[in-house]
Design a protein that fits this description.
By secondary structure, the protein is mainly beta. The protein is built from one helix and 30 strands. The longest helix is centred in the N-terminal third of the chain and has 11 residues.
């Protein structure tokens, strides 16, 4: 009976075809960071891997890319004279946001940028006196969420409307706050860091257009991050708690901001949720019993599944991380193929 039930569950699980997004000329690593509802992907292509994953922003040569099925992968370039860029967000109009370093500045000193549909790049600037900023997502109205340093060295969450920056502030006593995603209602989610520890302490937040709400953690936890929000206000991210054994677990906050532990992959100890679509399908990654990282998908009916079990056998891929999912159910992230990390597109 157990075998029959398991077989039935497997038969009804969503499966995917996989597309290799590839790398820019001269590179060997890439990662897909975001996908819009048209199936267009943005991310970063890199010459090397640091700490086991691509696009750390720590070395020159890393460039933002955009990809379409018809046009393939395209280098979005950097600000004039710069050496590093990354594309993190994309709306359905094709406007891209992310970061670039600045000519004459260290490769790690970024400024938020926006690429138009023609590929023109514009610096979005920083808060007054700030040395650095980053743009993480853009909604259909063109409002951008991100962060910026202040003159004091503290980082606050920011938004840009018509390329004009606004300081969204931070949770009380925070030293680093970032707006990581924005939905079409203008709601922004992210993280406020209170201390780097040990232990590292932070809380996820929700900005509703006028005030910032502390989303808290799982019971007994000291850390949470809100990574993504869908149109209806469902939020996903990660949190620790007394029940997580000192590890992060992927979590979901419902429209009443009640937190739910999404669990881990079979045999695993940790998981993180990076994306959620309007059907509340969640993607991210977790570990297996041997501690190997694997891309995952979570649904309310099927729980958490290793995406590697849902792609064609013998594909040559090992999917490591799923960063984003669109409303069609397409997923992007990165995995290893042929000894290198490549951005992928999964299509149901």
């Amino acid at each position: 009976m157990a075998f029959v039930l398991a077989a039935a569950a497997l038969a009804t699980a969503q499966t995917y075809t996989i597309t290799d997004i590839g790398v820019l000329k001269g590179d060997n690593e890439s990662s897909g960071f975001w996908i819009n509802n048209l199936g267009e992907v943005v991310g970063c292509s890199d010459t090397q891997t640091v700490q086991g994953y691509p696009c750390t922003g720590l070395v020159a040569g890393q460039h933002a890319f955009s990809w379409t099925k018809s046009g393939g992968i395209k280098d979005l370039g950097t600000l004039s004279g710069a050496t590093v860029s990354g594309a993190i967000g994309l709306n359905d109009s094709g406007t891209v946001v992310g970061y670039s370093n600045v000519k004459g500045q260290p490769a790690t000193n970024f400024v938020a940028v926006q690429w138009s549909t023609t590929g023109a790049i514009t610096s979005l600037g920083t808060l007054w006196g700030g040395s650095s900023s980053a743009a993480f997502e853009i909604n259909s109205a063109g409002v951008v969420a991100g962060d910026s340093f202040l003159s004091s060295g503290v980082v606050n969450a920011t938004s840009w409307t018509s390329k004009k920056i606004k300081n969204l502030g931070a949770l009380s006593k925070a030293i680093f706050t970032a707006g990581l995603d924005i939905n079409d209602n203008g709601y922004i989610v992210g993280e406020s860091v209170f201390g780097y520890g040990p232990p590292f302490t932070s809380h996820g937040f929700l900005w509703n257009g006028s005030t910032m709400k502390d989303l808290g953690t799982l019971t007994g936890g000291v850390t949470s991050v809100a990574n993504s929000i869908n149109t209806s206000g469902v939020i996903v991210g990660q949190s620790d708690g007394t029940s997580t054994g000192g590890h992060w677990h992927a979590v979901l906050w419902n429209t009443s901001d009640k937190i739910q532990d999404l669990g881990v992959l079979p045999g695993g100890t940790y998981s993180i949720a990076f994306g959620v679509n309007d059907s509340s399908v969640v993607v991210g990654y977790g570990n297996l019993s041997n501690n190997a990282a694997r891309a995952m998908v979570w649904t309310s009916t099927g729980g958490m599944k290793d995406l590697n079990s849902l792609i064609p056998a013998g594909s040559g891929w090992v999917l490591i991380n799923a960063n984003a999912i669109n409303n069609v159910g397409q997923i992007t992230g990165y995995g290893t193929k042929g000894g290198h990390n490549h951005a992928f597109l999964l299509t149901p």
